[in-house]
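Q: Predict the assembly, please.
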Amino acid sequence: MTEKLHTPVIAWFDAHARDLPWRRPEAGPWGVMVSEFMLQQTPVSRVLPVYEEWLARWPRPADLAKEAPGEAVRAWGRLGYPRRALRLHGAAVAITERHGGDVPTDHAQLLALPGIGEYTAAAVASFAYGQRHAVLDTNVRRVFARAVTGVQYPPNATTAAERRLARELLPADEKTAARWAAASMELGALVCTAKNEGCARCPIAAQCAWRLAGKPEHEGPPRRGQTYAGTDRQVRGKLLAVLREAHAPVPQAVLDRVWHEPVQRARALDGLVTDGLVEPLAGGLYRLPLS
DNA sequence: GAGTCGTGGTT
DNA sequence: TAACCAAGACT
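A: Predicted assembly structure:
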């Protein structure tokens, strides 16, 4: 059963994989790790220019570790979820202190780094070091949901059943497993997308349980929509945008202009300080964190 | 386990 | 146009 998936998907990957900079040999484990942080909830097209900038500026973990965390936040630009920049900086510090400046090869040691969870630990171990891990991201989950389980979409949160399935489908051979991880993810990213699934281009359309069932529509509760306008997140984004552009401490009065409602504005700024994304100074001044 | 956390392109 | 979506992590 499983070989009927592995072989065509990997062959398709060999023919259609995108030439992404973090897939080139010269990227190395650090390049893979940086890309994985940036790609969390963020499209490839927006990551590409920032990735190139980061790797040119900080080619090794120790280079980033020497910087102020605020510089990482500034260089993050408008990628979104700027706590990732802080965590990546923290991971670089930990790698420099605990692992001699080299991205660890061990899954448990990767998982212990800030900003690295179940997915990213498996992804770095697999993509950078060729190890055998179930790499279960939103693309792979969708491919499995359709091809194997026969439903349009996976559950909102990753389930034990999905993890078990991913382990069962993992090729025994280490190199093949790593190839399969990248290939199944790419298939979900390019062909078996959330909307407009491209069955005509799919290498496993003939075996796809969902297609064979007549592509039944998703049942159950609507898949959570995330509103943004008017939320604290939007206010945080506006505040941080001002601080990213500034190269000197910013007075409170300048920050006050980004949002009219004072209670929400104060709550958002306080949250940024709590998260370590903003450093308050004496005299009502604010800046990106120096330490 | 449900909420929170950015941003911009696509439909 | 409002909603959906994009290689999740953390509390």
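Chain A is about 55% helix and 5% strand. Residues 174-190 of chain A form the longest helix (17 residues).
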